[in-house]
Amino acid sequence: MKVKLEETVQELARGFRVHASIYSDPEIFDLEMERLFRQSWVYVGHESEVAEPGRYKTAYIGTYPVILSRDSDGELHVLLNRCMHRGAVVCREDRGHANHFRCIYHNWVYGSDGRLVGAAQKSGYPEDFDKSALSLVQVPRVTSYRGLIFASFNRDVEPLLERLAGVRRYIDAWLNRSPVGRLTLPRGYHRYEYPGNWKLQLDNGIDGYHGNYVHESFSQILERSGERSRKEVTRARNTVQEGNNAIGLPRGDALLERKFGMLGTVEMHGPAMAPYRAKLAEAHGEEAMEDILTQRNILVFPNLYLFESHIRVIRPVRHDHTIVDNYTTWLEGVDDAINTARLREHERFFGPASFGATDDLEIFVQVQTGLAAEGAEWFDMSRGMHREEVRDGQHIGHSTDESTQRAVYREWFRRMTKETATAGAV
Q: In the CATH hierarchy, which fold is given to the domain comprising 166-425?
C-alpha cells in the first residue's frame, strides 16, 4: 500500500481529494471486498427474476459468487455458489428454473434451498454420513424492499429499512413511475467489462460534469437530426434551478437529478405521454407525479444504480477489472408503447452499441491508464464545495458539482477505516 489508508481521503473546509492508490492498489481492493462488500447490504437481484418456486439467478457479492433462489416453499435463499466437496461452482447459468443444482465435478446434488440431497456413488461414504453439515453455505441475511433483493454476510448488519432510510424516498419515486408501483425485469440484459477499477463506474453514474464533453458527439447527432440543439442540451445541464442537482446522501448513497430531463431518457412532458401522466396523477397525485417524473440517476452504495430505464449492477473483479450488468425495466400498469419507447431510448444511449455508455467506457480505460503515471497522486473532488447547501443531512449542489462523489468517499473512508469520522482532516 503506497499510502496509509487513514490518509487516502482528505477534506478541508474548501477542498476534498482522494488518493489515486484507491483505484490501483490490490491491497486496498482486497480490503474493500472484506469491509464494504462482506459487511454491508449488497444488491443481488429483483424478485421478478425469481418469481416462482425453483427460479434462480446467479450473482456476486463483491468477488464472491452466489445463487439467488426461491425454494419449493417460496422462500428466498442466497447461497455461496461453491460445492462443499471440492469447490467447483454448482450453478453455471445466469438465470433459469431448476429443482436442484448439480456439481459437474463429482455429481454432488443440492436442493434449491442449498441442502445436500445426494452424493454420487454413496457406497464410498458410511451409513451415518452427515449430509446436513455439507449443505451449501447460506448468506445469513436476505431481505427485499419493494422487489429489490439485498443480502449480507454480516449477521449483525442493521435492518435494511434503516440502511435505506436516506435514499428510500428516491427509490420509491423511481418505482412509482409505474402507476401500480411495480416493475419487472425482462429476460434479456447486457453486460460490459473494462480494464479499470470498479469505483470509476461508481463515480461516473452520478457525475453531471462530464456530459458536455464526453458525450459531445451524441449532442451533435441530436442537433443534426433536428431533435434537440446542442445549446438546449448544454442549457439543460448547466442551468442553476431547483431540481437540477447533485445530491450526496448519508451512507454513501447519492443521486443526480434534472427535473426537465437529460440525455438517455424518454421525454415525459410531450403530448404523446399525456395518457401516461394522467395515470400517474390518478395513482399518486398531481404533485407526486411531478416528483416521480424528475429524471434521476440513483446510487445505492456500494453496487446498485437505479436509472430511468434500467438497473445497473457493478461487479468488482480485480483492482483493474470490472464487470457491469444492465437490466432494462418494464413498468407494470402502462401501455406497451410506453415501455417500448423506454427500451428504444435505453438502447440508443446505454446499450452495447450505444452513443453514451461506450463513451464512458473509453474514459474509464483512459483514467486507469493515467494512474500508471507516478508523481500525480491525488484526485481533486472539490467542485462546488463553496456553493453546496446541507439540508437534513443531504449535501445539495448544482448537477455539475461533486457533492455526490464526496458523499461516496466519506462513507468509503468511514467503512474502510472503521471510524465514525466522515473523512480524514489535514
A: Naphthalene 1,2-dioxygenase Alpha Subunit; Chain A, domain 1 (3.90.380)
CATH numeric code, 42-152: 2.102.10.10
Of the pLDDT bands very low, low, confident and very high (cuts 50, 70, 90), residue 237 is: low
DSSP for residue 93: S
Question: What are φ and ψ of residue 313, in 5° steps?
Answer: -120, 125
Highest mean pLDDT among 210-219, 226-235, 248-257: 248-257
Angstrom distance (rounded) from CA 102 to CA 91: 7
Among 308, 72, 406, which residue's Cα sits nearest to residue 397?
Answer: 406
Cis peptide before 302 (omega within 30 of 0): yes
Residue 165 neighbours by CB under 8 Å, 6+ apart: 250
61: enclosing H helix or E strand: strand 55-61
The answer, yes or no, to whether the previous bond of 159 is cis (omega within 30 of 0) is no
- Nine cell digits for residue 191: 453486460
Amino acid, res. 77: H
Q: Higher model confidence: residue 134 or residue 219?
A: 134
d(CA 393, CA 373): 37
What pLDDT was estimated at residue 127?
A: 87
Beta bridge partners of 284: none
SS (H, E, C) 18-38: EEHHHHCCHHHHHHHHHHHHC
The span from the CA of 407 to the CA of 254, in Å, is: 7
